[in-house]
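dumping the sequnces here before i forget
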Amino acid sequence: MTEGTVNLPAVAPHRRLWRDPLAVVVRFQSVIGLVLVLVGGIVFSPARHGQLLFLAPDNIANIVRAISETGIISLGMTFVIITGGIDLSVGAALGLASVLTATLMVNLGWGIAPTLIAVIAAGIAFGAVQGLISNRFRLEAFIITLAGLQVARGLALVISHNQYINISYGDTPGLAPPAFSVLGERLFSNTVPVATLVFLALAVVATFVLNTTRFGRYVFAVGGNERAARLSGIPVALVKITVYAITGFMAAVAGIVHAGQFSFGSPNDGAGYELTAIAAVVIGGTSLFGGAGTMIGTIAGSIMLGALANILQLNNINAALQLLATGAIIVVAAVLQALVGRREGSMR
Amino acid sequence: MSGLLLEMHGIEKRFGGVHALRGVDFDLKAGEVHALLGENGAGKTTLMNILSGVIESDHGTIRVAGMDVRYTDPREAQAAGIATIFQELDLVPGLDVAANLFLGHEIAKGVLGRFGGLDGRRMEREARAMLADADVAIDVRQPVGDLGIGQRQLVAIAKAMSHASRVLIMDEPTAALTAAEVTHLFEVVRRLCARGLGIVYISHRLEEVARVADRVTVMRDGLVVGELPATAPQGRLVHLLVGRPLDELFPPRGTAHGDALLKLDHAGFFAKRARAGWQMPEDVSLTVHAGEIVGLAGIMGAGRTELLSTLYGVGPRGQWRGKAEFAGKPVRFATASAARRAGLAFVTDDRRGSGLMLRQTTGHNVVMTVLKRISPMGLMSRAAESEMVVQAIRQFDIRPPRGDLVVGNLSGGNQQKVVFAKELLGGPRLLLLDEPTRGVDVGAKAEIYQRLRALAQRGLGILVASSELPELIGLCDRIVVMRHGATVAEFSGEVGESTLLAAANGEIREAA
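..and the predicted 3d for all of it:
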């Protein structure tokens, strides 16, 4: 580079990384991990009639369907974690949204559009209120969303009287509009699950918002240095409330998808989804300290976790081992990040 | 018998691709203060980190009192009587002073000691003795978090002194101290020397070095470039430091001033809720014209930072009493963004804490204040952003001249330039500066002064608070002195240091 030339600014927060192999690995750790898992899946896949089960269209459809709900949630979680926050309420919010959806359509006879609008509005409000409280009283998001988890679960139990609300389809009262069942179906000659399409569509939007909008940059700024962001005139409180509204929105959509896929609203569903989503985000290379992360990493992280679970299931490896494998992967991802962080810190 | 307490020979260290130390020799006699000078990144701190066992050298030998040593852990160095006062204070805010002084060396109490019981009373007593030894008057039961940064520094110094039996390394010990505290510290330093300790004194402040040191070693780019007696003329030291003669550290003063931008007339701030440790502006009278650089002097706690923060809308909520006008309109900014919209900008005294996103790039940092302007309809315009970044980097000569490097890896001086570039990109009319060159090396300081003057000549008004009196005297057109939240005197820029000091301590009252 000659004196006086100025390189164009990077869009991603870490662009210099090509010179540092370890940093490159971390930046693309989830993609690398995903490739490794897919290769492993093919190698270890049981075969039937000469065809690898792992690559069977039905199996692939299963994987992408299974990850759609936690995937949707992890998209919102990425925004929150980049601001340096966390949202533990999303799994319970998913359960609440599924109950609301079923109740509105089955018990109250609402149509699809009003139901979706109401549930999504409720999700956004639920998230925004948590953001508002944690902001106003300067409370850790951890504690507020932990409370939010309990509240959402409690509300779901109250509304559903602690029972599954079955959704049957038809045109008479007490039955949901048949079109809603599309969420449980597959399109394109029965190959691509609709739930996955919802996830993909939201993933595209979330990537766009994070990478190319002013709001996306605000999110990085708030997580990068909140005080500096405030002094720079960035509306920090609004950004922080908005990211929780986004997780609320994503949890509501995931809850609707859940109700559609399984044709019931269940107050206890979604438990632990928040942890899967956080795992996907962390594996995706987003820093829990805030200020750094990518949406594409989160998406790859989600798919990777789903594919891993699938391989283990195909090989009849029990659920306990699946948990161990997931735990090990999170540790590896976190250690890699810490190594890069230490290297960057070593100079000064 | 060489009489040398410490000898370091041919010390080399690499960090990744950076050759931080390229064969450095350094020695220290008992009872002397040996100053180590160098710009940021010259390798002073790395050298001392090697001596104190924080990091290991790649090559080279260290002899302490004639014995070859190689410390791999700070505790080993401490045990050998080598103590360091670090730039970044290693104190725990939640614990009280006594607990901090004994952190890691707690005194156990009799039988209970086996179960972790501590002798709090004895520790308090000894802590009091340690502070008395360093001549520091602070209650040992006060939580460190309640202390001002200057007092914390004194506690850290007392802590290090208690471990130092041979060598005490002081890395920028006066960065946060007032002039009186500095004088005090130097007395303590001299007493320690008389006891036979050797002191390595790292500083950016040449005038301090002349006051306290016996010898000066200057480092540049990982090498020792010269060793001089401390009485050497400053010009020669500066030449060695930056590798070129610095004709003038300060640019010539301005002449033409425009209209009054900021006008405070017996202005005070009435906060709805008091904030602990905050000296609210009580009775402030000063005017900053366009094109003028006005200095704010005062001892710590005089209310300089509070005045700037309150003007900028980031202090406690409340209201101004008296007359407080900016560009002819009453000042009442509830948030930083309101202040910024009106044309204010603020460089705080805490670059890392409230200035920069250290883990993000130079580009991302500088455009932070102008995001709205480069994102029509809420979408970031890459072209507009690059243009801004290029402009910022050129204007402040940020090195390396790239927008895509992580700011945390730049030198302190260049980090500070990024802060300035960020604040000025929006084209403010009045720039508020709080300790604008803290932790910045001489070369970068001179550059910053020159750019500030150039900006003033184009009509920017600048209000700068600083504890470095030479900086205020060299840079400012006028200097206003604050004490207990009120302005007590005003001088032209030609005032002497002692006059300013006397006014800051309430010994002179002069009509503005």
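Chain B has a mean pLDDT of 84.
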